[in-house]
Amino acid sequence: MRTAAVIGTGLIGTSAALALSARGITVHLRDADPDAARTAASLGAGTVEEPEGPVDLAIIAVPPAMIATVLADCQRQNLARWYTDVASVKAGPRRDIAALGCDTVHYIGSHPMAGAERTGPLAARADLFEGRTWVLTPTPETDTDTLNAALELVALCGAVPVVMDAAAHDRAVALVSHTPQLLASLVAARLEHAEENAVRLAGPGIRDTTRIAGSNPLMWVEILSANAGMVADILEELAADLDGTVAGLRALQAADEAKREQGATAVEDVLRRGNAGRARIPGKHGAPPTRYETVVVAIGDQPGELARLFAEAGRVGVNIEDVLIEHSTGQQVGLVQLMVAPSAAGVLTAALQERGWRVRSDR
């Protein structure tokens, strides 16, 4: 691949353009909003000049409802040898593409499993897709050269390719992406009119749960509209679980001991099923989930403190597998949770304490 076109210079389109440009690919940028394309170009994502002839690959990064129309326009213009889109749903756009009679031999659907709460070209990063799954959904007509072009795109962006059926992809993202977005928003909505004293008690649990609730509502309406049925099916199942949990919690308040026991069993069942589901989420580098131990360190809010802490771990040969930071409300101090291999927790704890850090190991 030597040349590419990106149609739609939002977060995903501009990030892909930045990654390709960094690899020496000449990228031509288009957007319905010329200012967005010029902004992306100013960031080094490519050029707003039109290509002199067909590029190797056109990447269509527009909302799902617009994929087919944009693809048809690009193919009429002979913009590229091969085409892909990066929409977060695949079955609906594929039906629209078939209805418009687009060339599906030189087209393949795709979806990089990456994103951020912020949108637009200014939120883009060349490393956005590093190590992330990138789903490819070829049509029955997609030829080998088109698939190879998409695989090259994925490789250039540092992602990991996975080939799936379009409908299976949509069922999967309804469960692991679209429904969590709505649930995060529903939980965060409870905070809108909450008392200030309650909000001030917010800790890492509520922050983690509601992080993606900061996403762009209009963008998510477009995504959910394209996968509404599958998301609604999952929400119905969740609603049944919620009803059972509410009934269990009410029973815990009953005077009758037998009812209280039934309520406790119902609530425990939901929590245990949650444990089982959480355990199935792949761990580091896609490996089976690994149980780490947590070393909690109090750290001051000064420049260089976090780097010093990581350097201390490196000096004793401990690899930090994951990290979380909890900030204390109204104080210039935080708690850093370092996830390490069980065999390393004691070594790291002792070494940090010896060097004057306030530390504990959550075994």
Describe the protein's topology.
Layout: E1 3-7, H1 11-22, E2 26-30, H2 34-42, E3 55-60, H3 67-76, E4 80-85, H4 91-99, E5 107-112, E6 133-138, H5 144-156, E7 160-163, H6 166-189, H7 196-199, H8 204-210, H9 217-225, H10 228-251, H11 257-279, E8 293-300, H12 305-315, E9 322-327, E10 333-340, H13 342-354, E11 358-362
Helix pairs in contact: 3-4, 6-10, 10-11
Helix content bin: 40-55%
Largest β-sheet summary: 7 strands, mixed
What is the CATH homologous superfamily assignment of the largest domain? NAD(P)-binding Rossmann-like Domain
Domain count, please report it: 3
Major beta sheet, strand line-up: 2-1-3-4-5-6-7
Intertermini distance: 51 Å
Overall pLDDT level: 91
Shape: globular
Provide structural commentary.
The strands form two sheets. This protein has a seven-stranded mixed sheet with strand order 2-1-3-4-5-6-7, with helices on both faces. A four-stranded antiparallel sheet has the order 9-10-8-11, covered by helices on one side. The mean pLDDT is 91. The protein is globular, with a radius of gyration of 24 Å. Helix 3 crosses helix 4 (91-99) and helix 6 crosses helix 10 (228-251). It folds into three domains: 3-164, NAD(P)-binding Rossmann-like Domain (Rossmann fold); 196-284, no CATH class; 293-362, ACT domain (Alpha-Beta Plaits), CATH 3.30.70.260. The protein has helices at residues 11-22, 34-42, 67-76, 91-99, 144-156, 166-189, 196-199, 204-210, 217-225, 228-251, 257-279, 305-315, 342-354; strands spanning 3-7, 26-30, 55-60, 80-85, 107-112, 133-138, 160-163, 293-300, 322-327, 333-340, 358-362. Strand 3 (55-60), helix 3 (67-76) and strand 4 form a beta-alpha-beta unit. By secondary structure, it is of the alpha/beta class. It has 13 helices and eleven strands.
